[in-house]
Specification:
single chain; 319 residues; alpha/beta; Rossmann fold; 9 helices; 11 strands; globular
Length: 319
């Protein structure tokens, strides 16, 4: 096992617009340009502390790790969310970009890898510095297009997330998820992006107060296709959000990357239920977490893993 470990260290990360994000970093005392640093992108409205045990696992196995909260969430939340109209585009273009810049300057020369949960995998493609990333591991990564929700659960999810959530947001000025036990309190711009009905993410910002020009939206799409990092996307058969269709919809944007999709059933790791969130529970440190570690260290699917594996080679993106 590695020696001379330090951390965890509380850090502040300043985005290009001056907003301060809070995070935690685990790093080894002796710099090593061969050692990857892993940035963990949380799911929508999930505090970064949810990933602490997983980050400690990666650090214990020789990697440097940064976890952080997006603006409006956890330790990066302002005094009030009323009138705080940030959305997914801000989390990607500003916050994840700032995290990439921070690790690039704090641990120069080290390979940058990303672990991304749910919408965190989508945010990867929005950052201008995504070309610096060498390897990505995603869990249930998608951008919540409602038609991709699991059949049999779709109506319930539509009522909860696409009717109740925006209705409550219009009343309170933000989504009061914490008091409902659903999510953390969530900025209204994120709710707007989540509840968009468009099958292509860039069309979310065609109209309204946060509209982007045609050229701006095309530039965002090009960022996805220009990224060349290797991607391993994990989907789980009982994940109501990260279905095969949802994961494939997002992966199609990363056409410049070598993409591997691993689809697992809980029974294949001796479990009855995993769902959208449980991957990061410490009870999976001996079964599921080594899948991420093998990919981050060596770019390989763990040899003992069952499941369905499909691969896609990079293809030129249309211009």
């Amino acid at each position: 096992m590695p020696h001379n470990n330090t951390g965890p260290e509380l850090v502040e990360i300043t985005a290009s617009d001056g907003y301060t994000l809070k995070g935690v970093c685990w790093r080894h005392e002796r710099p090593d340009p061969r050692r990857p640093v892993v940035v963990v992108n949380p799911a929508t409205s999930v505090c970064c502390r949810y990933y602490v045990r997983f980050a400690e696992f990666l650090h214990h196995h020789g990697l440097d790790v940064l976890i952080y909260d997006y603006r409006g969430i956890g330790e990066s939340r302002p005094e009030t969310l009323r009138g705080f109209n940030v959305g997914w585009i801000d989390w990607g273009r500003l916050d994840f970009e700032a995290a990439l810049q921070w690790v690039s300057h704090s641990m120069p020369g080290q390979p940058i890898h990303v672990v991304a949960h749910s919408v965190g995998g989508f945010l990867v493609g929005l950052a201008e510095s995504s070309h610096r990333i060498s390897r990505v591991f995603t869990v249930g990564a998608q951008y919540a297009h409602w038609r991709d929700y699991a059949r049999g659960h779709r109506l319930r999810m539509l009522l909860k997330w696409h009717v109740a959530m925006p209705a409550l947001t219009s009343v309170f000025g933000y989504f009061p998820g914490k008091r409902l036990g659903w999510l953390e309190d969530t900025p209204k711009g994120v709710v707007r992006d989540w509840t968009s009905r468009t099958p292509r993410f860039e069309d979310t910002w065609r109209k309204g107060s946060r509209a982007l020009s045609t050229d701006e939206r095309r530039a965002l799409v090009r960022r996805f296709s220009d990224m060349q990092a290797e991607i391993l996307a994990l989907s789980l058969s009982d994940d109501e959000f990260g279905t095969v269709a949802a994961v494939r919809r997002l992966l199609a944007y990363f056409c410049g990357s070598r993409r591997t999709h691993l689809h697992l059933h809980p029974q294949e790791v001796g479990e009855t239920r995993i769902g959208h969130f449980a991957f990061f529970h410490s009870r999976f440190q001996h079964s599921l977490w080594p899948v991420a570690l093998e990919w981050l260290r060596h770019g390989l699917v763990h040899p003992n893993v069952q499941g369905e594996v499909s691969r896609q080679c990079p293809v030129p993106a249309p211009r």
